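ARCHIVE CARD
Drawer: 12
Card no.: 0347
Subject: one protein chain, sequence and derived structure
Cross-reference: see card 0346
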Amino acid sequence: MTNYRELTAPCGLDCFNCFVFVDNITEKAVEKIAGLLHLDPADVPCWGCRAEKGCRLNFTGCATLECATGRGVWFCFECPDFPCSRLQPAADCAERYPHNLKLYNLCRIEKIGIEKWAQEEAAQIRTRYFKGKFVVGSGPVVD
């Protein structure tokens, strides 16, 4: 059984749905990423940001993870300073990285719980984010 709590970042990103997550990545993707970044192929698949101590896609630590750990919270919405500037959406790279989903995901996790969010909503939220068309007043919709 998947431990969704462990595999969801403090910021609300669903590591278990990421294309480099160990259960999702293909051999072809491993080879391509390893070649591009001059890595050993064994170092490419990710086990989730909590296990990796940061996002495998940027190969550095994560200030948000460090902040949450230092404040003793599992998810950012548990922090008295939520939301803070670490979670502010940005247009830069929004078409490739799901960082603009953070606040939405955190609000849904807080409202319906991690298990229900992970099993019923997380994948379709990603699909709407990456493949949906924005409709003013409706948000992203998939044709």
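Annotation on reverse: The radius of gyration is 15 Å. Residues 15-141 form one domain.
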